[in-house]
Amino acid sequence: MNKGYTDNATKLLRKLISIRAFSGEESLRSDYLVNFFHEKKITVKRIGNNLVLQQPHHDSSKPTLMLNSHLDTVQPVSTYSFDPFNPPVSDTHLYGLGSNDAGASLVSMIVSFLHFYDKKLPVNLMLALSTEEENSGAGGMRMLWQTLRDEVDMAIIGEPTGMRAAVAERGLLVIDAEAEGISGHAAREEGVNALYIALEDIAFLRSLKFNKISPSMGEVKLTVTQIHAGTQHNVVPDRCSFVIDIRPTEMYTNQEIMEILQPKVKSILRARSLINRSSATPTGHPLRQCAEQLDIETYTSPTTSDWMRISCPALKMGPGESARSHQADEFILIKEVEKGIEGYIRFITQLTADYSLPNI
After folding, report:
1. What is the DSSP string of 117-140?
2. Predicted confidence band at 357 (pLDDT cuts at 50, 70, 90)?
3. Residue 258's CB: how many other CB atoms inside 10 A?
4. Of 271, 292, 324, which closes a domain?
5. H helix runs in 104-261, sequence order
């Protein structure tokens, strides 16, 4: 492994951590990267704050592999023990907001793309750095894919997986539920308590089992994660809202889940979005074959990514651990960045050596 690759990646990641890039506010980070690539005489296509790069000998007759990771971060939690944008320096760790999710994947993909930039391969390499991944924003991959969908045949999505290859991932359905009652004075037992209605619905949802079981993902996962009711202690609440987090499998569309749930509860259910579907790359696809040849562990991811916003076969793979994402004192190990670069280069080398055009 070229030590200079790791040094370049860690230097770049430290700089990116210092530039705030909350979802929808990525312009400064995009500006920096545009200049970074321009200094290397590499053309960047900017679509909003999304960045797309291609090899100089791009050949439209060849299939295209897209390397994708996201520029944005969540907001930092309040329990950070240091400034998340100016973290302490370590010889072994890179600390700071977005270092693990997905900064390490981002810089590892950038260095890997640069490694192959001038090399003629049996496939084209494209680097797509997307925005608004964390908030499912309309200006991120949802918009970008409208431009890229006819050019890209397969993708690697850079997210913290410990360099395991996710060959499928669950979708996401977030539902805002509201129970309606009638307000009254608590001391006189007046009204209809919306909180009790909500609790009955929540109890039902907690016990609900979906009939169709995915062979690769198992059951649909449903969790109530938030609840709010009441204005003061002596008023029976006439409204109670709660939020349902659902991780679907390929056995149900989001619309089908809504149609199953609404008749069974008293609360009104409103989906925030119906487009965040589950994803899976079929057995036998070159991406999966390559992972098998390299003895890379494969699995189904319980979390979502920009994979759900694209329509081509993909793998989700990157340095770091998903459990660290969105937590205080976020970090990535420098040796994990090194393994990320090494893993991407090894994967692309093997894929292009054995590649045959899939039936897409």
Report:
1. TT---SSEEEEEEE--TTTT-TTT
2. very low
3. 17
4. 271
5. 104-116, 141-148, 194-207, 254-261
pLDDT in tens, 249-301: 989 999 999 999 999 999 999 999 898 889 989 889 999 999 999 999 999 99
67 and 14, same domain (yes or no): yes
| Inside any domain, residue 360 | no
Identify whether residues 134 and 245 lie together within a single domain.
Answer: no
**Residue 240, SS3 per DSSP:** strand
> Which residues are bridge partners to 211 per DSSP?
none
Q: Which three-class secondary structure state does DSSP give residue 147?
A: helix
The answer to whether position 359 is within a domain reads no
Contact status, residue 322 vs residue 161, Cβ threshold 8 Å: yes
Q: Percentages helix, strand, coil for the chain, rounded to the nearest 5?
A: 35, 25, 45
Residue 240 pLDDT > 60: yes
Global pTM exceeds 0.90: no
Q: How many CB atoms lie within 10 A of CB 57?
A: 12
Domain that holds residue 88: 3-170+279-354
What per-residue confidence (pLDDT) applies to 359? Answer: 45
- Evaluate whether 39 touches 101 at the Cβ level (below 8 Å): no
Q: Give the C-alpha separation, 140 to 129, whole Å.
A: 9
What's the structural domain count of the chain? 2
List the structure tokens of 99.
């270092």
Q: What's the pLDDT band for 36 if we cut at 50, 70, 90?
A: very high
